Amino acid sequence: MNPITSGRRPLLTFKRSERGASAILVAISALVLMGFAALAIDSGILFSDRRQQQSAADGGGLAAVQFARTEVTAKCPSAAASNLAACRGAEEAIAVVNGTLDNRYSDADWLACTDPAPLPFVSSLSPCITYVDNGLQEARVRLPGTDVKTPFGGVIGMNSASVGAFAHAKVDIGASADVLPFAIGPTGASQAQSCLFAQATSNLDILPCDGNDSGNFGKLDLSLYGNSTLGTPRICGNASPQTKMGVNVATGADHTFEVASKTAGTVNEVSNCPIIPNPVDNIPVQTGNAAQGISDGLFYGVSSPALEGRIMCKDGDAGELAGKTSPACESVWNQFPERLDDTPLWDYINPGNDLGSGACNPLGISDRAGMETCMVEWKTIGSPGNPLFTEAIPTAPRFAAVPVLNADPSGGTGTYDIIDFKPIYIETIYMKCNANSCDTIHSPGESNPTPPGCPNPVTPLTSHCGVPGNGNANAIEALTSFMLDLDMLPDSVADNFPSAPGTTVFNLYK
């Protein structure tokens, strides 16, 4: 045997084997690459569909809380009163989802849908559209889910994959526009100062609490929905009026409102409790004596739930209202360490608003009469684009909103439509009054004589002669406020006021 020839044969054999192995490796690599490509394509399809479904769920969640209101429709007839509000929200949520996904889900799909983590209150249209039962201000929308075809997944035995999405939405109510339960009609809303509340005009004949023509004196019977964010309880109808009034004054209303006839249907809190639609535009006046409840809400506080008075200070902070502060506080006798907010409205005047006459120079204002003069002159000659007050005014515990009703409330019973909302600044408190003699009058920022005490009789110009809690005061006798105009406020404040876009924020949380 030729040693050279015999030495080459193994070499030739080895090279042929190598070429065969390489072919196998190339084939395997090609399959792997094709698999990765198929996986990438299928994953892209699934991801794209998941993104569409999440967008649909987000829109559905927002619609569920935004449209949870009473309105007669084919799917939500008026007969379904116990579930009407949730049905409307669910109906709108389904419409938004189907509009986003080209009507992918049928009514049967929604009814057959299951949610592993539903909220307590389930809508009648789908077990996958559920609410927190706090006035239906928190909703969860879970889509029925879709089996999405995977074009290349069949290679590994996976012809489709299940894709779904959910969203959790919630109503946030801005603290800059707390709605207080005082009934103001067109007459009171047009004045510089109005009487928010008075026991009886015969007991106090002092402007602006000298008659229904100069104030409205009505107390609104606002239901408490049980808002988990604000920590309010559910109190519907006429149950526990003192607690309800106290909580309403301390925190503001715990649900949203809107101007009447802004949307179709009847949306009120008179006939929809405990499943209450959101928002409401129709409010009853409270009967009976609410004086103690107003006193509790302003300064004494509410025991259950535990809430401090709206205008009480502790360590420079007023009560438990988020974002509310008191630059000036005054000691309250016999209730140390409690103090009362003593910040006057003129502390929030925007610099440069002296109007040439100096009427709105905060350094020149020392009482409510001077503040009223400023407001009247500003409305006459104020310059456009230069608001009277600064952006800090929403942080004041005395700043809030009241609904303007379609008529001046005449006392007693009655139900009124909301036609507008008015910014207010809580001003003078009268306590322990008999005719024109009051043991305690408190106007923020005004001088407190020594020894404290009110002249007899009290005159319309009497300002500050005591503070609540001096051992001689009990329930409130009367309460006044400055009535502000929206154009007096900076745009950042006015744009977040009731009836203005952005007042109620519908936020996605999950």
Description:
With 510 residues, the protein is an alpha+beta fold. It has 2 domains: 16-172, no CATH class; 175-505, no CATH class. It has 8 helices and 21 strands. The strands form 6 sheets. Strands 8, 12, 17, 18, 19 and 20 form a 6-stranded antiparallel sheet that branches. Strands 1-2-3-6-21 form a 5-stranded antiparallel sheet, covered by helices on one side. It has a 4-stranded antiparallel sheet with strand order 14-13-16-15. A hairpin with a 7-residue loop joins β15 (329-331) and β16. α1 (3-66) packs antiparallel against α2 (84-100). The longest helix is centred in the first third of the chain and has 64 residues, at 3-66. The protein is elongated, with a radius of gyration of 33 Å. Residues 1-9 have low confidence and may be disordered.
What is this structure, in a nutshell?
This protein has 510 residues and is an alpha+beta fold. It has helices at residues 3-66, 84-100, 107-112, 186-189, 241-251, 291-300, 368-381, 491-494, and strands at 121-122, 129-132, 138-142, 146-149, 160-163, 166-173, 182-183, 193-198, 218-219, 224-225, 234-235, 282-284, 312-314, 317-318, 329-331, 339-341, 399-405, 415-434, 437-442, 476-483, 504-508.
